[in-house]
Amino acid sequence: MKEFNQPISGNDLARFSGPNTFMRLPQATSLEGLDVAILGVPMDIGTSWRSGTRFGPKQIRAESAMIRPYNMATGAAPFDKLNIADIGDLAINTFNLQDSLRIIEESYGAILSGTAVPVAMGGDHSITLPILRAMARKHGPVAVIHVDAHADVNDEMFGEKETHGTVFRRAHEEGLLIDDKVYQIGLRGTGYGPNDFKEPQSWGFQHFPASELWNRSLHNMGAEIRRDIGSRPVYLSYDIDSLDPAFAPGTGTPEIGGLTTMQALELLRSFKGINLVGCDLVEVSPPYDTSGNTALVAANLIYEMLCLLQDRPVVPAAPAV
């Protein structure tokens, strides 16, 4: 019987000790034999407001020590079915955003040359564009579930074309997405003009504003999205600012009136069975939440992503492009 990596139990070693890896999993120096590779991208040079997401991966790992391996609500047991390890942080160039995006894309190219599904801890949201570039080379254009307060479809910010607020416009322009299978969930806040969200809708993006989700269960909506996607390859990008700041204040661009943690769990669990080819959790900024609660929420949402990967169908990859 094949044995998989297991998190260190809190009954074997106190949770405040041990390795600073996600859920105190083994740290891998090779991708060989891995089904899932968890990695950090400690970067905040693509952000436009409050910095600090460079510290996100470290604190998410620290708060993940509290999570146990079995999901008592869903019955999922990802560490019994998948070989998962933490492969550490990408060595980004903290003084150069363009070089950092290049490093991320090349690193993902190497990861995706194997069989491991990458799960990234950000870092600001600019990390998702180079990831999607690498994803498209392996899988072709992908469906995207994008949970966020912001659509991230600006044309430029301060004259720059590649920032945390331009990700999905660039991805659309570069043909990385199945445009009518992009689902942006939790959008809200103020805008620069009345048409901020209308243009991406004209591309085919489907919008689910937070104000239409208040006081609602998200299970049925998520199930409809899952059926609409079918067997297509899906990338899941989860910005922690999709949550109301009451639940996740430690982020760079907070917006009131967001999702609750309960809705976040419902939403992720409703995607069971999707063909998830990668995911990220971004924009955790520990300096703005000294309690650690935002990172704790992020760690638990990443665990829920691992539970989704447990039930990922086996679908052949598209020819390389």
Short note summarizing the structure:
By secondary structure, the chain is an alpha/beta fold. Helices cover 29% and strands 17% of the residues.
Structure description:
The protein is α/β, with parallel strands linked by helices and about 325 residues long. The protein has one domain: 3-Layer(aba) Sandwich (Arginase, Chain A), CATH 3.40.800. It contains nine helices and eight strands. Helix 4 packs parallel to helix 5 (about 165-175) and helix 7 (about 220-230) packs parallel to helix 8 (about 260-270). The protein is globular and about 55 Å long.
CATH superfamily: Ureohydrolase domain
Helix-strand pattern, N to C? EHHEHEHEHEHEHEHEH
Coarse structural class: alpha/beta
Radius of gyration from CA coordinates: 18 Å
Mean pLDDT: 95
Count of distinct strands: 8
Strand order of the largest sheet: 2-1-3-8-7-4-5-6
Helix content: 25-40%
**Domain unit count:** 1
The CATH C-level class name:
Alpha Beta
What characterizes the major β-sheet?
A: 8 strands, parallel
**Oligomeric status of the shown chains?**
single chain
End-to-end Cα distance: 37 Å
Essential attributes:
9 helices, 321 residues, Arginase, Chain A, eight-stranded parallel sheet, 8 strands, alpha/beta
Question: Helix and strand layout, with pairings?
Answer:
Layout: E1 36-41, H1 56-63, H2 78-81, E2 84-89, H3 97-112, E3 117-122, H4 128-139, E4 142-147, H5 167-173, E5 177-187, H6 198-203, E6 206-209, H7 219-229, E7 233-239, H8 261-270, E8 275-282, H9 293-310
Parallel strand pairs: 1-2, 1-3, 3-8, 4-5, 4-7, 5-6, 7-8
